[in-house]
Amino acid sequence: MLVEIHLNLLEFKNSISNYILETEENGWNKIRGFEGEYYYKEFNGYTILVSANFPLEKGYIFENLKINKLREILDQPGKVKYYLTLDISDNTLTTTKEDCFDPFPGIDIVNGMLKDFQFFRDECCVRIITQMDSIDDFPIALNRIINGFQLYYSIVNLQEQVAINYVKNYIK
């Protein structure tokens, strides 16, 4: 199941402008476009878009998400994004290939130390993955994903600083 968290309501409205609004069910708007059918609902300052196979009766899990950290994470210099796309399957929550990371040295060591989430490496990129006991755990799992973003950017920034310091010492 696909879940997108949109943090900019105007940008979201723009992104669905080519979709056809079909119906409303319990506050969820059903839209249809070339890629398929989706539902969306606006909450307090953000919009959730879900694939048509999402159980709408579980929509309460999206109320009052703590997204301030997510706003900061997605506002990276040179990589500003207004939404996060996630995949829910087999009791896991995973970032998608839209939010690929480059592998970093020591990723296996870092994964060996982590309990709440992992950096999952496939042939294309590195994604963040975490377990959920049920869909009701989405807010907790989202927090873990956000923590994964923070850790990744911290590691990359520290590695860049080490490289800069090393080169400065080398060229002296």
From TrEMBL:
Native organism taxonomy: Archaea, Thermoproteota, Thermoprotei, Sulfolobales, Sulfolobaceae
Source organism per UniProt: Sulfurisphaera tokodaii
Protein name per UniProt: Uncharacterized protein
Origin superkingdom: Archaea
